[in-house]
Amino acid sequence: MRVTFTPIHKRDKGISGTIAVLQDVTEQERLEQSRREFVANVSHELRTPLTTIKSYAEALNDGALDERELGQRFVGVIRNETERMIRLVTDLLHLSRLDSNQATLRRQQTNVPEMLEEVADRFSFQMRKKAIRAGVRVEDGITSIWLDRDQIDQVLDNLVSNAIKYTLDGGRIEIMARKTDANNIAISVRDTGIGIPKKDLSRIFDRFYRVDKARSRNMGGTGLGLSIAREIVKAHGGTIALDSELNEGTTVTVMLPIQAGGESA
Ligand code: ADP
């Protein structure tokens, strides 16, 4: 709460009263604080790969280039770090477009069972590598809904790729769709993975929030996947929720209106 006092002057009579203005600044301060945190996070996330690239480039310059195998390894590290930065900047640009509502939705009638089968197909190689079994289950009667296929594909890709990243070898991933009422469908991605501790659940959709930063980085994550997913779903007039049990698994559920809602193209 901010309080400002302004004296009231009357001609020849000096101060005859005071106006007190009470202003609620908590929301403003909260926004300012999260903006500062965001800038600090972006700087840190960019600085880390840049520092690595610099030191590996220096090592190459100082002689590693003369040892073929070592040189190749160092160039590999530089390439990986560059790719990480490209992913990060691409995600940031996408988020910024979603924030400023410039991301107009290009909705099209989309067959839900087909869309879910296709996302499972896209990841079948990665799942096979980890011996993860996958299943797609769509309730009878669900056919088409009106959505931006590219954007929702990106949401599903994020959720399935997280499910794979955070599930140990031999686990199971289920992609499901059901009608919750006459107007909405729920699409869920459930895994039997490592789960998320209760204390982290409330912040999991925050930008750059990760349960284990090092693990997420090693897996190539930017910490922005769930935030982007939430913005895309919001633009569709839907909601996204995450439910998790540590060491048992995680379910992320996206609720979408069957008829176009929210901001449409
Ligand atoms: P990241 O790029 O780190 O995966 P996300 O925004 O997609 O970023 O996810 C944020 C964090 O939420 C992850 O770092 C991870 O700690 C946690 N998380 C997301 N999905 C899962 C999941 N299916 N199982 C366990 N943890 C998850």
UniProtKB/TrEMBL annotation:
It comes from the Bacteria. This is histidine kinase. It comes from Paenibacillus baekrokdamisoli. It is found in: Cell membrane. The chain holds residues 346 to 610 of 610 of the full protein.
